[in-house]
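Batch manifest, entry 17 of 40.
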Amino acid sequence: MSLLTKWRPASLVPAEFQPFDLWHDFEESMRDWFEGNSRSTVSPMRLLPRANVAETDKEYLVSLELPGLDLNDVEVKLSGNELIVTGERKQKKEDKDKHFRRIETTYGAFERRFELPSDVRSDADSLKATFHNGMLEVKVPKREPKPVTKIPIKPM
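Output type: structure tokens
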């Protein structure tokens, strides 16, 4: 894989103003196909699971797609207000005798970090994580807001 890319003056223009370029689209798709099938190089981006982060009045909900992983392959930690999800997709041993024509499944370790707002509760009893059918859901509750304290002003 080359770190050098061909200079294209059109790449400086936003995509919506660029003319239709069939040859460029073909080159991109071929590059993606060949780089995606390389056994020696795996893009770290291909290992990152897709995630959704939602918020309710009482909690933050982080959902990750982890198809093909078991509960023992995933670890969830909260450090301050940063949620850290790590795991590893391992290659099945019975696949080693097969002669693949195309490989699109990626294997290896991954780590996703989500910086949540500072109002998260970090006590272990309040955090909840569930794993079902390849979906990991982590619920991180919010702290109760502290009431506003009015400070009286004294004359000098």
